């Protein structure tokens, strides 16, 4: 049995802890918050809770596997329900076009695209993503990755173009290109950093559908909290982690505000980015606008394309959250969609937490893990690929938002599954020092 410390009680930490505890390890979670769930619980502003990201997920098998590998099957704990379509609105100075995009079905997507644009280049382009999805899933998403993994994948895929350029060349239609790439502008506003492999998510959503949990994200947080109790995971809430302890080049525990905690393995699942860890670094915290409407409504999922690009998602009864590029005021664009000022009962602004945690200069703190271990280098090419699970130093695994800023739940879930596979059951000693790079 290994002593494993998990830092973070959001989805990343809870899913990692549940899997590892079921494998027979002695697992403890540390989090500064007073409750489990992290951002699944939303962000409270003036007494109202707002969801900082969409409540829809894809890849339902990721969540079913999590519950099956940690205890009772998911259907005995929480339901997954099909999510509504996503509305795309294309605005110009003189026109407005709408498309309600279905998911989980090729034929319905084809019909919707053809009805709106008269022809369908979209379906064939999405079909072409299947081989890329298979390679990335097997060699990146389902593994604790090293730089050599990523370089091999990029070489195999010949991924020379950005996601934007690849979509524009294939689709040859500005509105279809906007559907494909405007979502990435909220991660990379320059459209110059994301490789074309990011477009696999259009195949994933069409093939596996979009889903919502019964009672939404709070329901998922409650179900995982119960699972941790069943697995007898030790919970240390209201506990600030201020550093990582290293000895002889290996992580051997954490430093908390209350003192040191020894561990055979540390799983860093906090949303805070560890200094020196590799991976995408282009997601910037942005201001979000929460609105509560009286007598009017918006779709549960909405993308507005045009000069003012908006991403909108439902956040509870009569409430929506709006994200705009460059933190522009979204209200004028919402007015063009028919939302009158009188209908806006509440309007608030809030931000997601910052992603990078700078440790204080304390003895034993892993302040620059990149210098401690060269297994995962800060490579400008490989860092464009989302790695849901990395091991930057022996004894340390990183998952969730610390591995991929603004990571989705399904990507995080694949990362925690990969970590559990790498560590293995309690009677297996392999991989306790982290994942070896094939070039070592």
Report on the architecture of this protein:
The chain has 440 residues and is an alpha/beta fold. The chain has two domains: 3-44 and 54-80 and 214-280 and 355-423, FAD/NAD(P)-binding domain (3-Layer(bba) Sandwich), CATH 3.50.50.60; 102-211, no CATH class. 30% of the residues lie in helices and 22% in strands. It contains 13 helices and 20 strands. It has helices at residues 11-22, 60-70, 106-117, 122-127, 130-141, 147-157, 163-171, 174-185, 200-208, 216-230, 331-336, 369-372, 409-423; strands spanning 3-7, 26-30, 43-45, 48-50, 80-82, 86-91, 96-101, 211-213, 234-236, 241-247, 250-256, 259-262, 265-268, 287-293, 301-305, 310-314, 319-324, 344-351, 389-393, 396-399. The strands form five sheets. Strands 7-6-15-16-17-14-18 form a seven-stranded mixed beta sheet. It has a six-stranded mixed beta sheet with strand order 9-2-1-13-20-19. It has a three-stranded antiparallel beta sheet with strand order 10-11-12, with no helix packed on it. The protein is globular and about 65 Å long. The two termini are 28 Å apart. The model is unreliable at 355-381 and 436-440 (pLDDT under 50).
Instruction: Provide the gyration radius in Å.
Output: 22 Å
Oligomer: single chain
The CATH class assignment of the largest domain is Alpha Beta
Helical segment count: 13
Question: Span between N and C termini?
Answer: 28 Å
**Residue fraction in strands:** 15-25%
Q: What does the average pLDDT come to?
A: 87
- Characterize the main sheet: 7 strands, mixed
Order of strands across the biggest sheet? Answer: 7-6-15-16-17-14-18
